[in-house]
Amino acid sequence: MVLFVVLAQIAACPNNCTLRGVCKLVEGRHRCDCYPGYSGAGCSELACPNECSGRGTCSGGICSCDSASTGPDCSLRACPNGCSGHGFCDSVNALCTCEQGFAGPDCATRLCPSNCSGRGSCLDGQCLCSPGWTGLACGYRSCPEDCLGRGACLNGTCICQDGFQGSACAQRLCPNGCSAQGRCDASGTCRCDDGWTSHDCSVATCPSQCSGRGTCSSNLTCDCEDGWTGRGCEQLRCRNDCSGAGLCSDGQCYCDVGR
């Protein structure tokens, strides 16, 4: 008779409590008293820890916490955005303590080094430097035109490579300064004064190099071709030198009066 009563009680509970609990008569109704770790009317569901602390829903023994809670049993307070993976969450006060280089309530804001030294604006952890400044933290003065790639910038001053000069290393240097006997053009080529030649204007020569109408002798005077005269063979010669009785101009004789 006792066995019959027990079997009748078990049969009265849903699914025989899935053998994960004890069927009891409570207030005139048969109910399952589930073993630890199980829940539900028939003890068929896995229980969640601490019943999710009343701050989430239980499914398959796992808590799905509401937005303001966290932890296996939802007993901890959640920090904003989980501190974005860049900080430590104080679950008591729900406050983020950010790692170095990050800031904001949820540690989502990247900081710039040295706050850009007060010489630029910070955009996603990178400094956009104000004109005249450069460097990761805008800590260095920039050089004109970045020295055009022909030198190193040292706190606002270009240290030019060999062969270049100027505030932005824009000018080419001429060899040997053209020996102070010519001028240096923008391409770095010497334009020699009359009477000087060579790449650095260091070699003396005849005036105008005899204009291509004569040869330069060892004493640096021109031996002009027939029909030409002058220090640099630049003048047309008059026939017979006007016979000594007139003035020669551009190959034309202007005879003296009476001739």
Please describe what this structure looks like:
The chain has one helix at residues 2-12, and strands at 21-26, 29-34, 38-39, 45-46, 56-59, 62-65, 69-70, 76-77, 87-90, 95-98, 102-103, 109-110, 120-123, 126-129, 133-134, 140-141, 151-154, 157-160, 164-165, 171-172, 182-184, 190-192, 196-197, 203-204, 214-216, 222-224, 228-229, 235-236, 246-249, 252-255. By secondary structure, it is mostly beta strands. Among the domains are: 2-70, Laminin, CATH 2.10.25.10; 76-137, Ribbon (Laminin); 207-255, no CATH class. The strands form 15 sheets. Strands 1-2 form a two-stranded antiparallel sheet. Strand 9 (87-90) and strand 10 form a beta hairpin. It starts with a helix and ends with a strand.
Name its key features:
259 residues; mainly beta; Laminin; two-stranded antiparallel sheet; disordered N terminus
Helical proportion, percent range = under 10%
Supply the CATH architecture of the domain at 2-70. Answer: Ribbon
> What name is given to the CATH topology of the domain at 2-70?
Laminin
Any idea what the CATH superfamily of the domain at 2-70 is called?
Answer: Laminin
Strand content: 35-45%
**Terminal CA distance:** 174 Å
Number of helices: 1
* Biggest sheet descriptor: 2 strands, antiparallel
Task: State the name of the first-level CATH class of the domain at 2-70.
Answer: Mainly Beta
* Helix and strand composition category: mainly beta
The average pLDDT is 87
Which stretches of 5+ consecutive residues score pLDDT under 50?
A: 1-6
* Number of DSSP-assigned strands: 30
State the strand order across the main sheet.
1-2
Q: What is the CA-atom radius of gyration, in angstroms?
A: 51 Å
* Overall 3D form: rod-shaped
